[in-house]
Amino acid sequence: MNAFKAPVNFFPLAANALRILAMDSVEHAGSGHPGMAMGMADVMAVLASQYLKWDPCDTQWPDRDRFVLSAGHGAPLWYAALYMWGVLSLEDLKNYRKHASKTPGHPERGTPLGTEVTTGPLGQGLANALGMALSESLLRKEFTQTLVDHYTYVILGDGCLMEGVAQEAISLAGHWRLHRLIVFWDDNKVTIDGPVDLSGSDDIVQRFKASGWNTLCIDGHDFNAISNAIDIAKKSCQPTLIGCRTHIGYGSPNKMGTCQAHGSPLGYQEAQAVRKALAWPWNEAFFVPEFLLKQWKHFSQKSTTSHKAWQERFSTQDSSMQDRFSKAINGAALSQKAQEQLRAKGIFYAQERPAISTRSASGAVLAQIFPYTRLLAGAADLKDSTCTDPKEWTPYRPFLYYGIREHAMAAIMNGISAHAGFIPCGGTFLAFSDYMRPALRLSALMGIKVIYIMTHDSIGLGEDGPTHQPIEQLISLRAIPNLTVLRPGDSVEVVECWEIALQEKGPVILCLSRQSLPTFSKVYKEENLCKAGAYPLLPATKTPKVNLWASGSEVHLALTIAHELADQHSVSAQVYSVPWMMRWLQRYPEPWKCFPSDLQISIEASSPLGWYQVTGPGGINIGMETFGASGESSVLFKHFGFSSTAIVQKILDTL
Asked: Binding residues for substrate, per the UniProt record (predicted)?
């Protein structure tokens, strides 16, 4: 969308309105961050009123421009713009930072309407925006520029650029030449602790240039310079950084340009001094003159016109194109054909009962269902090790080579999912989930659909040793709210867990083995047993002497133990496979009470924390209490006590 001509005095008034509203929001709340909001108000005034193709009457219009406030602490600036559009009310601004308000301390996806992603942890928004720009590029190839023709804009600060995830994203964006990604850097040279040179002396612009970006440097308070820079950026064949030299707390006579303006209210006296310094004639808090609101909304009507034109273009497409586009954007994950492919694979595995790793089974499932889903696969330089390459590439659904950038991969996948059009799935080793945790947490916080394929899920990976062997990762990931963590025990459970991953609305992690495992499932049922969280594997007895609870590669060990107990010691045992622990605990907060036995035992080659809730007081929890070691997997399992001989003896001693 081209810039619209505004009255000469519009920009100064609009920018100052944003400043005053942001400042007043922080003053009213008694906490918040006025500095960045006041410093970037000029950029926001130009971008939001003149360039952003965004319909306040329909904030989910598929071909809207995406805006990401990566520096999420600047939320009052975004909220002020939403008020100018009419999306928020003055009451909403006055409720800034209050519980259950539409204006939380940092922007949250969908709260308020129009917020694309949750930001606050610095650097995440930039990587999210990369995912959005990538989605736009791929969808444009698939559905043509008639239906997909928009930009992704980002506002970030020095803090974002200090985070490692930002450099990972900068590198990939340049490599992928995402020319519809335009980033505004709030170059105010101040961080919370003081001047930015206390902690950094690198040349930011040269960093971007070296990564293949187009770079521009402007006065961030010069409206013409801002507009010209955006025009130039939109003509570039590279992603663009617009370095905006600004003053934090712009307009504050005593705090402008200092860290004092960053993260606390300016104070009543200083707020009044700001009004005077900006020649803002209205002393009433939260006041914006009606004529200015009308002018701003006049420009938003241009976006509404663009939206209507898009709807007309969409209506002229043939029904097949309309249907494909709607399904892509609305996220139809599990089509009937995909369901049929899953069923066929499940039946095959149950009949053939192969001894294969769950990562290999997952790779075969992915390849079979890929053509019938909107999956967009990738890996952090581990596509063969994680079996994440479906080998069904198209120009608009390529395999994504993220490189050794686990954190950016997760954050980019968040952006892909938030944009709509694809279901991102990406692979790495489970131990390296620690590199991804901030983005993983935001996946769960936003409740967006991302599938993480994490292999080499225990000491069973063997010779690579303790640096690569996950110990504490499973329990720590299970502790994240809204994150589904699945650990299938054989090839049939892999099929069922993939079905869950495609049906769940939020993020899912598939934890998969490197080593081959026997297939213990003898039949594939239409009823997905893994959806229950856990289920018994042996014929029911009245009350077994022992209940064995296990997940993943340890399920087969539990079955071996149960058979030894019955055949050699006349001790009855039941085995429960627990692929989805947290679902099971939601259903049965104290399983040891609901499924009684003389002895409850859990077996998992991971930290035993969490299993105490399953086995209860007096239970035995066999897990990893130390880090692993380098060696053959069979040797390691025996060394760390995961053998039928050792566990059977422990059971007999306890009974």
From this structure: 33, 262, 359, 385, 456, 464, 468, 514
